[in-house]
């Protein structure tokens, strides 16, 4: 069906040929659109829907581009020494735990032939990676006064992005392979030549899973969102400090 809700027909002017869609939208954007669509419902296919899917994937691409840019500026490589995860800031342990949990959920959904559930889990994780992890940690990648903390940030984001590319591979074969190639194969001659030759990352990430930490961060996030909403209602600017606040759990 077209975006106007009608069946696609050339005579109605709402038909889009596959070759044209692949060229203008991008095949991975098309795959993301179809994977997110519930199979029991009609897909309203069109250029605006493709723009929505592309914007979502650009969120991940921007995180990836940020990492690549700052890693090159800092001369950081994956074989550089970094503190163990247990000695890194809590936020690093959290995003790695989220990656571990997401890999479990996505694997289970794909085994159950539930592409919708898999893409929803991936979308939520990508949003956490961009909106929360990177936004809170941007300065750590450019600070030169604390080299250990900067190394921890680079190592954490690198491992998270590599795991993300492996989780996305069944759904977005081209985007995931582009990311993996830049993050892994260009710096590790012994690594598989393609993300599609790697194993699912769940076993490697399992040791990072900390459900209690994820629950605590979720409570903190809900508190932040609630306070932000209350600030808006009261006309208090976000950067204006509050004298006191109460949180009922």
Description:
This protein has 249 residues and is mostly helical. It is built from 9 helices and no strands. It has helices at 18-25, 27-36, 47-74, 90-111, 115-137, 147-168, 173-185, 202-205, 211-234. α4 crosses α9. The radius of gyration is 21 Å and the shape is globular. The mean pLDDT is 89.
What's the structural blueprint in terms of helices and strands?
Layout: H1 18-25, H2 27-36, H3 47-74, H4 90-111, H5 115-137, H6 147-168, H7 173-185, H8 202-205, H9 211-234
Helix pairs in contact: 1-2, 2-3, 3-5, 4-5, 4-6, 4-9, 6-7
Main beta-sheet annotation: none
Strand fraction band? under 5%
What is the global morphology? globular
Mean pLDDT: 89
* Rg over C-alpha atoms, rounded to the nearest angstrom: 21 Å
Straight-line distance between termini? 47 Å
Number of strands: 0
User: Which bin fits the share of residues in helices?
Assistant: 55-70%
Query: Please, how many helices?
Result: 9
Which structural category fits the helices and strands? mainly alpha
What quaternary form is this? single chain
Q: SSE string, helix = H, strand = E?
A: HHHHHHHHH
* Low-confidence segments: none
């Amino acid at each position: 069906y077209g975006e106007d809700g009608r069946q696609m027909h050339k005579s109605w002017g709402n038909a889009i040929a596959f070759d044209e869609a692949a060229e203008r939208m991008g095949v991975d954007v098309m795959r993301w659109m179809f994977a997110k669509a519930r199979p029991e419902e009609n897909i309203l296919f069109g250029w605006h829907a493709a723009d929505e899917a592309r914007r979502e994937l650009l969120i991940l691409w921007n995180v990836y581009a940020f990492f690549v840019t700052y890693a090159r500026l800092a001369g950081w490589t994956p074989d550089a020494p970094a503190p163990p995860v247990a000695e890194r800031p809590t936020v690093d342990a959290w995003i790695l735990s989220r990656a571990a949990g997401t890999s479990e959920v996505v694997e289970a959904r794909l085994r159950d032939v539930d592409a919708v559930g898999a893409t929803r889990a991936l979308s939520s994780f990508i949003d956490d990676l961009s909106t929360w992890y990177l936004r809170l940690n941007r300065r750590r990648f450019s600070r030169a006064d604390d080299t250990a903390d900067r190394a921890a940030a680079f190592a954490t984001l690198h491992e998270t992005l590599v795991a993300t590319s492996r989780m996305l591979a069944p759904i977005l074969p081209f985007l995931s392979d582009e990311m993996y190639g830049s993050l892994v194969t260009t710096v590790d001659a012994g690594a598989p030549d393609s993300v599609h030759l790697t194993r699912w990352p769940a076993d490697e990430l399992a040791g990072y899973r900390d459900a209690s930490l994820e629950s605590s961060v979720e409570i903190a996030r809900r508190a932040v969102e609630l306070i932000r909403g209350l600030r808006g209602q009261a006309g208090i600017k976000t950067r204006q400090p509050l004298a006191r606040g109460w949180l009922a759990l």
